[in-house]
Design brief:
Layout: H1 2-20, E1 23-27, E2 30-34, E3 47-52, H2 58-66, E4 76-78, E5 84-86, H3 108-111, E6 112-117, H4 127-144, E7 151-153, H5 154-157, H6 171-176, H7 196-203, H8 210-221, H9 233-250
Parallel strand pairs: 3-6, 3-7, 4-6
Antiparallel strand pairs: 1-2, 4-5
Helix pairs in contact: 7-9
The protein binds zinc ion (ZN).
Length: about 250
């Protein structure tokens, strides 16, 4: 009887030992021992990317963003009347930014929450729609602690491909509420040797296509100037001001 008990104990001991042998995870070409820690949580977004849908109706926009064939989505969609729809969990990677870049980040979909505003791109954004956006941004900002400078437009992060949200988007109103940077005159004088292209890169833009980067900056910060391909003296001063704002915000 005693031997039977001892045999059982040996068998149980063997099971315990084998349960403690680490599992092996193979991700890519590296085999790693799985030694789980309890200290983790879902990753948080650190950017918000704003879009306009280019659609006429919320129903149409929703059908595109939820179609199994479209290959595009966003976390939120806001209608013209301020109706807020959530399409993707914030912890998941929605497909809204595509090939994108900002300040060294090369995968904005992984780093951001995407918000689509239903708008054709040629119409003003109704105040009630912007009020709903501001309430949503405040909620997101509180939960994710996203820096003010990291509220951007799709055109900012994909300047060679995209031009949304349109020049009618009220960036100053957002910045006044703490979402995105903005400078009002009088602007500080930029130094004579201030290099505009390097300034755009330091601010975050992808400057591999310089004309596109300039056009995206103008769309966002000088929307009333139809000369999107030129950085005039005011634009230089605005960019210099924005860089100073961004440095101040980081401190
Ligand atoms: Zn977009």
């Amino acid at each position: 009887m005693r031997w039977r008990v001892r045999g059982l104990l040996v068998m149980l001991g063997g099971l315990v030992v084998s349960a403690c042998v680490p599992l092996t995870q193979r991700l890519g070409n590296v085999a790693a021992e799985w030694q789980p820690s309890p200290h983790f949580e879902a990753r948080r977004a650190n950017y918000v990317i704003l879009h306009h849908t280019s659609n006429d109706t919320l129903v149409h926009a929703l059908s595109v963003l939820t179609s199994p064939f479209s290959g595009v989505s966003s976390h939120y969609l806001i209608g013209r009347e301020g109706r807020v729809l959530q399409l993707v969990d914030e912890r998941q990677r929605a497909w809204h930014a595509g090939a994108s870049y900002w300040g060294g980040q090369t995968d904005m979909n992984s780093a951001s929450i995407g918000i689509e505003l239903d708008n054709t791109g040629a119409e003003p954004f109704p105040s009630v729609q912007i009020e709903a956006l501001l309430a949503l941004l405040a909620d997101i900002q509180t939960r994710h602690r996203i820096p003010q400078a990291n509220f951007l437009g799709h055109a900012d992060v994909a300047p060679a491909r995209k031009s949304d949200p349109s020049a009618l988007f009220p960036w100053p109103r957002l910045a006044a509420a703490g979402f995105g940077l903005w400078c009002e005159p009088p602007y500080p004088d930029a130094p004579d040797d201030f290099d505009v292209l390097l300034g755009l890169a330091a601010f975050g833009y992808d400057i591999r296509h310089p004309e596109a980067a300039v056009a995206a900056f103008k769309l966002h910060f000088s929307p009333d100037d139809a000369k999107r391909g030129e950085m005039n003296a005011t634009d230089r001063a605005k960019l210099y001001c924005l860089l100073q704002q961004r440095i101040t915000e980081q401190q």
